[in-house]
Amino acid sequence: MIAQEHTKQRIDFSGVNAFWSIADKITNQQVTEADWDNLFSTGYYKFYEN
Amino acid sequence: MMKNNDFNSYIFRQIISTYEDKVKLQAFQKNLVQSNLMTKIKKRAQSFLPVDLNTRTYEPFIYFGVFQPDANASDKGIAVDLKLYFELADPVGLIAHEYHHFLTINYRKKFKDIKDDSTGLIMKSLLQLQLEGIADMIDKERFLNSDGRGFPSVISKNFKNVLANPLPALHKIDSLLVIVSKEPISTKKNSELIFNLLPLGAHPHGFYMAKTIMKAFGKGKLLSTVRNPFDFIRVYNNAYIKLNGTAIFSDHAIAYLSLLETTHAL
């Protein structure tokens, strides 16, 4: 069972943190492709890919 | 540019307003890290979980992000929009609901994915009724009492409308199941009709069915259906008979569902 492998609480804010970062860069017109890649590689966005 | 009632424009506004509230939300995020969230979630969900799922430690990944006012669960984890969580009247209830899904998806009876399955949408409808119905017992009273604060207002309004009159759709589903059992060639078309009779992801109908089971037989009986969505339908039908003297799902429909359960069993 997949759930039994999860023995520790994992609350992940990397999706939120990547959002704060990219939103700042968009505001300052400094956003790059790497910033988007970073945002969409976080657990939150990966969740919605599946 | 953006139409007021378009869901995409709602998402744009949600994202823009999330950034506008950055300082407030970052402070909230910091407090959330220190809030012992998992303990609160488990405490809230445990009253609608079978004892054996309650007494062991199954912990999902919980991913916070920014996208749309929604939360979802899979067999691996939970995803939650931070601003939605911030704005809800009952945020712990929302994640407890998703935590219930996480456990149910992992530990309820599994069914075969059959290629080009003409009954696929019937199966999906049954799975949704049970999944959402039982989990809604955790949080939907408070959600409806707050008029669904944090979500688009149309959601709680539509939820209440369906919940006020759930029986016509269930009667129609019964008659469609009977037709499908007698005319297999009509299965695909009628499967779509059945699925479309259950709006909002089958939440309101499932919630009504779970409440009916609770009213007729109590919580123990409701929890006995967590591991099998077909049991949920059968027990609901018996609950309705106990309360009203007649059935919603006919013997013919129930027999067809048992056949579906057998043909999809792993």
Features:
heterodimer, A: about 50 residues, mainly alpha, disordered N terminus, B: about 270 residues, 3-stranded mixed sheet, 3 strands, about 65% helix, globular
Q: How many DSSP E strands of chain B?
A: 3
Task: Give me the secondary-structure category of chain A.
Answer: mainly alpha
What's the oligomerization state? heterodimer
Largest interface: A-B, 26 and 31 residues
Q: Compute the gyration radius of chain B: what is it?
A: 20 Å
N-to-C terminal Cα separation of chain A, in Å?
Answer: 18 Å
Give the topology string of chain A: H per helix, E per strand: EHHH
β content of chain A, as a range? 5-15%
Structural class of chain B: mainly alpha
In brief, what are we looking at here?
The complex is a heterodimer of chains A (50) and B (266). By secondary structure, chain A is mainly alpha-helical.
Task: Give a verbal description of the structure.
- The complex is a heterodimer of chains A (50) and B (266).
- Chain A is mainly α and 50 residues long.
- Chain A contains 3 helices and 1 strand, in the order βααα.
- The radius of gyration of chain A is 14 Å and the shape is globular.
- Chain B is mainly α and 266 residues long.
- Chain B is 66% helix and 5% strand.
- Chain B is built from 14 helices and 3 strands.
- Chain B has helices spanning 7-20, 22-33, 37-45, 51-54, 82-87, 91-107, 120-145, 153-164, 167-182, 187-196, 203-217, 219-223, 229-244, 251-263, and strands spanning 61-65, 71-73, 77-81.
- Chain B has a 3-stranded mixed β-sheet.
- In chain B, α3 (37-45) crosses α6 (91-107), α7 (120-145) crosses α11 (203-217) and α9 (167-182) packs across α14 (251-263).
- The model of chain B has no long low-confidence stretch (mean pLDDT 93).
- Chain A binds chain B through residues 1-4, 6-16, 19-20, 23, 27, 42-45, 47-48, 50, and chain B through 18-19, 22, 26, 29, 32-33, 37-38, 57-67, 72, 74-77, 79, 82, 102-103, 106-107.
- β1 (10-12) of chain A pairs parallel with β1 of chain B.
